[in-house]
Design a protein that fits this description.
Length: about 190
């Protein structure tokens, strides 16, 4: 395990952090997402790491909660102090990726902080009952794959959730084909 928050790491600049994270192995990248200090350069470093397709759902949610979204969840965007705008944008991106099924569920991944995730989902449900919504609302059917033992979540997984996760995989496949320069048009005989 790499000590991402060791003393000399905090002295490095943003470019050095990006260089290290881009060269990290998948295991080291997972460790970085789970342990990176959000007081350093979260938007460029974690933003790049969170966009990688090898990051699993439990890791992504751990990174999300490390950004302490509770601080700004019920604030209007304009009320978030400017110094925290980069972190809030990163939290926006992570939440969007979670909700669209970008992150896969890996049986071999380290576990998510289940009590904290349960608490987040319970607060979301309570907000919904009161007719309010926070800035970051996690799709309960997607995160339920990590909370199978939660009473309100058991049995709520549906074909819609499975389809949403599959749709995310299809989108990633198309993006990879386009990135590789492959034509998606059918090849018809001349």
């Amino acid at each position: 395990m790499y000590a991402w928050n060791r003393h000399d790491w905090t002295r490095l600049d943003e470019a050095a952090h990006l260089k290290v994270v881009r060269a990290a192995s998948p295991i080291a990248l997972d460790d970085l997402v789970r342990n990176y200090d959000w007081d350093l350069f979260p938007e460029p470093v974690l933003g790049w790491a969170m966009a990688q397709k090898g990051i699993d759902l439990a890791c992504a949610l751990t990174g999300f909660f490390n950004g302490t979204p509770e601080r700004f969840n019920h604030l209007q965007k304009r009320d978030v102090p400017e110094v925290f705008h980069p972190a809030a944008r990163l939290l926006d991106n992570i939440c969007l990726r979670v909700n669209c099924g970008f992150y896969s569920v890996s049986p071999h991944a380290a576990k998510v902080d289940a009590p904290r995730l349960r608490q987040w989902v319970t607060r979301q449900q309570n907000d919904r009952k009161r007719g309010v919504s926070g800035r970051w609302v996690l799709d309960e059917m997607i995160v339920s794959t990590l909370l199978a033992d939660m009473p309100d979540m058991a049995g709520r997984r549906s074909a819609r959730c499975t389809a949403r996760v599959q749709k995310g995989r299809v989108h990633r496949w198309f993006a990879a084909q386009i990135h590789a320069g492959r034509s998606l048009e059918p090849h018809l005989p001349k």
